[in-house]
């Protein structure tokens, strides 16, 4: 019993990073999650919830360690986590473009799909999410990949936190974000409206806020995103000559979304220095807004 609570305390200590004291009200809830080993996946126990069955069927694509390590998912995370191969591609691509980068901020870090892959290539990864359960899953999943020491998590609502202008001091080399797309319904309309449908802020506000923290910004957005909006917002915020690089990413032959890059070093990236095995995620169209 004593051993278990020491373990929980140690884990909580690791979990609390950016500003320790802010976690006091959450400590009890976190402790309960750890103690009850909540959300641990039984990879071979078939899910009964029909709405997540298709995601469960592809569970090994979400986390390759699904069968060999303890991994943790809430119901929402089943359709939110970035598949590992896509997350790895994004991390490698950013590393190739920004070889000296050390610190990444993953806003809306969810279950850690992206955070974990960033932690494989960068020294420090900050993750922010307004779900304590998701932060707990990120931490647990980072443990499965032995990268939890590089991962620093912050609980809270991003728009509120970002208004306090504290992230500017963290010397973030690149902000990555896979914001909530609004659930699986995002494909219902032919064109995804990046102002009306993206949560919790539209593209303009999201990008403006991120650019205050870092000059390098990467967003993972729906494959049917309105590229006209991307172009317009880019020019409105960064000027008429500004560009945004857009890569279409596939996993297992299926288009998973687009990666949008803002930042000079991304635009001038030479393909011959692409991360090894560039075909695992095919960047089928390299869409340059000005190109
Ligand atoms: C698409 S998921 C991110 C998935 C993540 N990239 C991964 O691979 O696991 C979006 C996340 O945003 C979080 N979120 C939604 N609204 C938020 C807000 N206002 N502030 C902070 N996090 C928020 C949700 O809890 C969810 O975990």
List keywords for this structure.
12 helices, disordered N terminus, 16% strand, disordered C terminus, alpha/beta, 291 residues, binds S-adenosylmethionine, Rossmann fold
State the end-to-end distance. Answer: 63 Å
Report strand %.
15-25%
CATH T-level fold name: Rossmann fold
Q: Which small-molecule ligands are present, each listed once? A: S-adenosylmethionine
How many structural domains are formed by the residues?
A: 1
Poorly predicted spans: 1-14, 272-291
CATH class value: Alpha Beta
What's the SSE pattern?
Answer: HHHHHHEHEHEHEHEHEEHE
Helix-strand category: alpha/beta
Shape: globular
Summarize the structure.
With 291 residues, this protein is α/β, with parallel strands linked by helices. It has twelve helices and eight strands. The protein has helices spanning 2-15, 27-36, 50-57, 59-62, 75-78, 84-97, 113-121, 132-144, 158-163, 203-213, 227-238, 264-267, and strands at residues 103-107, 124-129, 151-155, 174-177, 217-221, 245-251, 254-262, 283-288.
Give an account of the 3D structure.
The chain is an alpha/beta fold and 291 residues long. The chain has helices spanning 2-15, 27-36, 50-57, 59-62, 75-78, 84-97, 113-121, 132-144, 158-163, 203-213, 227-238, 264-267, and strands at 103-107, 124-129, 151-155, 174-177, 217-221, 245-251, 254-262, 283-288. It has one domain (9-288): Vaccinia Virus protein VP39 (Rossmann fold), CATH 3.40.50.150. It contains 12 helices and 8 strands. Strands 3-2-1-4-5-7-6-8 form an 8-stranded mixed sheet. Helix 10 links the parallel strand 4 (174-177) and strand 5 (217-221). The longest helix has 14 residues, at 2-15. The chain is globular, with a radius of gyration of 19 Å. It binds S-adenosylmethionine. Residues 80-82, 108-114, 128-131, 134, 157-158, 178, 180, 199-200 line the site of S-adenosylmethionine (SAM). The site of S-adenosylmethionine has 21 residues, from helix 7 and strand 2.
């Amino acid at each position: 019993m004593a051993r278990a609570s020491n373990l929980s305390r140690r884990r909580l200590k690791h979990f609390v990073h950016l500003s320790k004291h802010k976690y006091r009200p959450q400590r009890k809830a976190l402790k309960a999650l750890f103690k009850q080993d909540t959300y641990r996946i039984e990879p071979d126990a078939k899910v009964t919830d029909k709405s997540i069955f298709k995601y469960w069927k592809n569970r090994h694509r979400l986390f390759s360690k699904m069968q060999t390590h303890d991994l943790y998912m809430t119901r929402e995370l089943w359709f939110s986590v970035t598949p590992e191969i896509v997350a790895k591609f994004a991390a490698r691509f950013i590393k190739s473009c920004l070889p000296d980068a050390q610190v990444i901020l993953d806003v809306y870090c969810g279950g850690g799909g992206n955070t974990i892959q960033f932690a494989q290539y960068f020294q420090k990864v900050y993750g922010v999410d307004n779900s304590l359960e998701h932060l707990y899953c990120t931490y647990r999943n980072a443990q499965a990949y032995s990268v939890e020491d590089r991962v620093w998590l912050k609980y809270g609502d991003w728009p509120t936190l970002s208004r306090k202008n504290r992230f500017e001091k963290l010397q973030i080399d690149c902000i990555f974000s896979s914001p909530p797309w609004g659930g699986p319904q995002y494909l219902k309309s032919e064109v995804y409206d990046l102002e009306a449908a993206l949560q919790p802020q539209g593209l303009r506000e999201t990008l403006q806020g991120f650019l205050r923290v870092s000059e390098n910004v990467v967003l993972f957005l729906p494959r049917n995103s309105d590229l006209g909006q991307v172009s317009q917002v880019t020019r409105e915020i960064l000027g008429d000559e500004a560009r945004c690089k857009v890569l279409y990413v596939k996993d297992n032959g299926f288009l998973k979304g687009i990666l949008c890059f803002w930042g000079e070093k991304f635009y001038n990236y030479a393909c011959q220095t692409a991360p090894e095995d560039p075909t695992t995620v095919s960047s089928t169209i390299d869409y340059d807004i000005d190109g």
